[in-house]
Amino acid sequence: MPKKRALITGITGQDGSYLAEFLLSKGYEVHGIVRRSSTFNRGRIEHLFKDIARDAPDFQLHYGDLGDSNSLIRILSTAKPDEVYNLAAQSHVGVSFDMPEYTGDITALGTTRLLEALRTSGLPAHFYQASSSELFGKAVISPQTEETPFYPRSPYGCAKAYAFYLTRNYRESYGMFAVNGILFNHESPRRSENFVTRKITLSIANILAGKQECLYLGNLEAKRDWGYAKEFVEGMWMMLQQPEPDDYVLATGRTATVREFLELSLAKAGIAFDRSGSGTDETYRDTKSGKVIVRLDPRYCRPAEVDCLLGDATKAKQQLGWQPKTTLAELVGLMMEADLKAMGVKV
After folding, report:
1. Measured between alpha carbons, how far is 242 from 322 in angstroms, rounded to an integer?
2. What is the C-alpha to C-alpha distance for residues 313 and 315, in angstroms, rounded to an integer?
3. Under a CB-based contact definition with an 8 Å cutoff, are residues 206 and 343 in contact?
4. What is the pLDDT of residues 255-280, one digit of tens each?
């Protein structure tokens, strides 16, 4: 029996790397789309080349871009995937305020280009669209389910809303097996360094290693539903194995503030601290060294804040059999330990 083939956009990212690992463990032939750039950005998947025999075709990369329809058509005709996972995007919410046009082009119209390329190819591939809890934004109902109205609060959230509805439209208009996974925040040691969770753990490791003086953060009271990325990619795969396409929320059902994540990270790193001041003048001080190690900076606050996101994954649990397993404290531990090890710091 021939191996199933999967095509992943965004394969060099956190989710793409974990998904590639998972699919390879399932016996898939995995194809990934990578953008040509002046820097080599394949650190998260480099080990996959080493783990697979040099002449094995199970893991292949193709140059392409969601901004280039021709490259998508070419790659689909070459890879002939059974499953397509669209994980690529301009995915940083804060950056989307600075680059709204680019965010819309890649995150929204890029999904259009990929869906249309898949439709015209005639391939009967199952399609997964990476939706986001940022769709809910200024949520009017909590917790949020698949039926909660969208209220995006950033260009990124708006672009994801376009992609969500377009995916549903292609499903209903053309009979394509196309699903949306509305994933709440999911983190790991592979999270990009400009996302707040990884920024926290990496900065603390750098401070202990003597490579950084202070960590600067924005809104400490923002609440998020944080899970483990490695578990969330399994849910993506589960969605494409169902007899009928549908949309699903993946979330832990628990919420924590950025402040809680910060303080869990400090504790895991063995840093005793005290807090002083209020508002933007609040600081965290290492009680052992006496140095201020955390300050607030208004530049890291967004023009429109999302105060609280909390997901209800009941549908995914009942229909997919998906369950989050890692607690927030365990997740913080995984991330903090990885960054401390990378910096050569023992605690």
Report:
1. 12
2. 6
3. yes
4. 999 999 999 999 999 999 999 998 88
What contacts 250, CB < 8 A, 6 or more positions away?
A: 181, 182, 183, 184, 186, 227, 232, 235, 311, 313, 316, 322, 324
Half-sphere exposure in the Cβ direction for 157 (13 Å, CA): 22
User: For residues 44-60, b (16+ Cβ closer than 10 Å) or e, as one string?
Assistant: bbeebeeeeeeeeebbe
What is the rounded end-to-end Cα distance, in angstroms, of the chain? 50
Amino acid present at 162: Y
Mean predicted lDDT score pLDDT of the chain: 93
pLDDT of residue 42: 72
Q: Of 25-39, 129-143, 295-309, which has the strongest mean pLDDT?
A: 129-143
* Backbone dihedral angles phi then psi of residue 188, each to the nearest 5 degrees: 180, 175
**What's the one-letter identity of residue 31?**
H
From 332, 309, 20, select the one nearest 188 (Cα to Cα). Answer: 332
* CA 294 vs CA 19, 149, 320: distances in Å: 34, 36, 41
Question: Cα-flanking dihedrals φ and ψ of residue 151, to 5°?
Answer: -150, 65
Q: Give me 70's structure tokens.
A: 């021709």
- What angle separates helix 14-25 from helix 229-240, to the nearest 10 degrees? 60
Question: pTM of the full predicted structure?
Answer: 0.93
Q: Residues in the chain, how many?
A: 347
Q: What percent of the chain has pLDDT over 70?
A: 95
Angstrom distance (rounded) from CA 75 to CA 176: 19
Residue 55 pLDDT greater than 70, yes or no: no
The number of beta carbons lying within 10 Å of the beta carbon of residue 114 is 27
